[in-house]
Specification:
two-stranded antiparallel ribbon, globular, eight-stranded parallel β-barrel, alpha/beta
Length: about 325
C-alpha cells in the first residue's frame, strides 16, 4: 500500500497512527536486535517502518611500508535486505531510504530493481549527509547532487526509463516516494523561502508526501505547514518527533539536526542534570505532550525517530495511543 494512501486512510477514519525510523544492523549483526526493537512497538500497530541508509565512512591504518592508508567502510549495510525481512516477518509496510551520497546512478538503479523484486514499492528519497571526511557534500561522479535528481530517477524508472535509456515493453515499477522537509530550514539553504522552493520542486517532481526533520516546538511545524500550503505544496506533511533522553542531547541534537530546543525544556533538563532517569522522564513527557498536541490538531500520523531504541518510544505511545 502506498504511504500516501495509508496517511489519507488514517485521516478519513479519524484514526491517529504513527510510523517510526529504524537503523539497519551493524555489519556482522543478525536480525535479532532490530526485531526486538520492532517487537516493543508492534502492539501499537505502526502504520509503517522506515529503514535508514548509511553511506560509507573512511578508516585509516598504517601499511607495512609505514604509509597511512585509507579504507572505505560501510558500517550499516543491508537497508534493502532488512526492509524485506521486517515486511515479511511482521506484515507491516516498510520504507527503505535511498540517498545520493556515495552512490552512482547505476548503484541507485540496482537498489531500486532489488526493491521492486522484493515488493518494496515505497521509498524515501534523500540527498543524505556529507561524508565525515568532507567539508561539504560532494556527489558521486556518476551520481546526484540533490534529492530532486534522485526522485526524478525513481519516477523515470516507473515510466520504464533507465540510466541507459528507455526500455520498450518493459515491466514498469510503481514506486511511491517521500521526501524530507525542514521546519527550521536545511543547513545548506540560503533562506527559509529558498528551502520551501526546493521542497516544492521535489513535490512537483513526484513526491507523494513529506516527512519533517525532528523538532521540539509544535508551533514550528504548524508554521512550516502553513508556508508549504501557501507555496502550493498540497501533499501530506508528516511531523517528525524524537524524545530527548540524555543530557548530552542538549548539544548533540541541535548540532546534528539543526533543531532548536525550547528554553523551558533546556532549563528543566539542566535542573536534573545529575539524574539520568529524571532527564529521560522529562524527555518522555515532552514528547508525549508534542504527540498529544499534534493528535488534537488532527494530524493523522506522526513519525518517530528511534535510532532503533524503542523502549522510550513505547512509553510515549502508551501515553498517547
Amino acid at each position: 500500500m502506498r504511504i500516501r494512501d495509508i496517511i489519507e486512510q488514517s485521516a478519513n477514519e479519524g484514526r491517529f497512527r504513527f510510523s517510526c525510523e529504524m537503523l539497519p544492523p551493524l555489519k556482522g549483526d543478525g536480525t535479532d536486535g532490530v526485531f526486538a526493537a520492532v517487537d516493543n512497538i508492534m502492539e501499537f500497530e505502526p502504520a509503517w517502518i522506515d529503514i535508514t541508509f548509511h553511506r560509507e565512512t573512511l578508516s585509516e591504518s598504517i601499511g607495512a611500508d609505514g604509509r597511512r592508508e585509507r579504507h572505505t567502510l560501510r558500517r550499516r549495510p543491508g537497508t534493502v535486505g532488512i526492509s524485506a525481512a521486517i515486511r515479511s516477518h511482521y506484515g507491516v509496510e516498510v520504507v527503505p531510504h535511498l540517498i545520493c551520497g556515495g552512490l552512482s546512478r547505476y548503484d541507485i538503479e540496482d537498489a531500486l530493481i532489488d526493491m521492486d523484486f522484493l515488493g518494496l514499492h515505497n521509498v524515501l528519497a534523500l540527498r543524505g549527509d556529507k561524508s565525515p571526511h568532507e567539508e561539504r557534500f560532494t556527489p558521486h561522479p556518476q551520481g546526484h547532487s540533490r534529492a530532486v535528481e534522485l526522485l526524478r530517477q525513481i519516477m523515470d524508472m516507473n515510466r520504464g526509463r533507465f540510466v541507459d535509456g528507455l526500455v520498450d515493453e518493459c515491466h514498469h515499477s510503481t514506486f511511491s516516494a517521500g521526501v524530507a522537509g525542514y521546519p527550521e530550514v536545511h543547513s545548506d539553504a540560503l533562506s527559509a523561502e529558498e528551502d520551501i522552493l526546493h521542497l516544492k520542486e521535489k513535490v512537483d517532481a513526484g513526491a507523494d508526501y513529506v516527512i519533517t526533520q525532528l523538532f521540539f516546538d509544535n508551533d514550528k511545524f504548524f508554521d512550516f505547514r502553513r508556508r508549504c500550503r501557501e507555496a502550493g505544496i498540497e501533499v501530506p506533511i508528516i511531523p517528525g518527533i524524537k524524545p530527548l533522553s540524555t543530557i548530552r542531547h542538549l548539544e548533540i541534537l541541535p548540532a546534528t539536526f539543526g533543531t532548536g530546543l525550547p528554553d523551558d525544556l533546556i532549563s528543566e533538563v539542566r535542573r536534573h542534570a545529575g539524574d539520568p532517569a529524571a532527564v529521560r522522564a522529562i524527555g518522555t513527557e515532552w514528547c508525549t505532550a508534542q504527540c498529544r498536541g499534534l493528535k488534537e490538531a488532527g494530524i493523522p500520523v506522526v513519525h518517530l525517530y528511534t535510532m532503533s531504541r524503542t523502549d522510550q518510544i513505547a512509553e510515549v505511545l502508551g501515553n498517547v495511543m
